[in-house]
Design a protein that fits this description.
With 116 residues, the protein is mainly alpha-helical. It is built from five helices and no strands. The chain has one domain. Helices cover 80% and strands 0% of the residues.
Length: 116
């Protein structure tokens, strides 16, 4: 099955909350992997950090669009987290800051999205 077919099938069967949880899990597992490998593969390291930043940017953009059904306070919190992720990601890439806070934020959000 092609990736596009899988994504289409997943979209039809998952709730938005489940999709967000799955995406956070995928991106977070990449962050954990690159954390354990260190910066030996700088390209993979930078790609994982950028993928996390882009994911949070998408979440933020979705929160400011008309029709988003989340409460305003939660939307503002997500936008704030996304801004922090963007700033901190630059510190990780440019200054060698630790990846752990990015992983922790993602895990905390995943806990809030988890069904049980």
């Amino acid at each position: 099955m092609s990736l596009q077919a899988y994504q289409t099938t997943a979209t039809r069967t998952e709730s938005p909350r489940e999709t967000e949880y799955r995406l956070l899990g995928f991106v977070t597992s990449e962050l954990i992997r690159i954390q354990s490998e260190g910066r030996s593969n700088l390209s993979a390291f930078a790609e994982a950090i950028d993928r996390n930043r882009r994911m949070w940017s998408i979440f933020s953009t979705d929160c400011v669009t008309d029709g988003n059904g989340l409460p305003n306070e939660l939307r503002a919190q997500i936008v704030s987290i996304a801004a922090w992720v963007s700033r901190y990601s630059s510190e990780v890439i440019q200054d060698g800051a630790d990846v752990t806070p990015l992983i922790d934020v993602n895990k905390n959000v995943m806990q809030g999205l988890s069904p049980g």
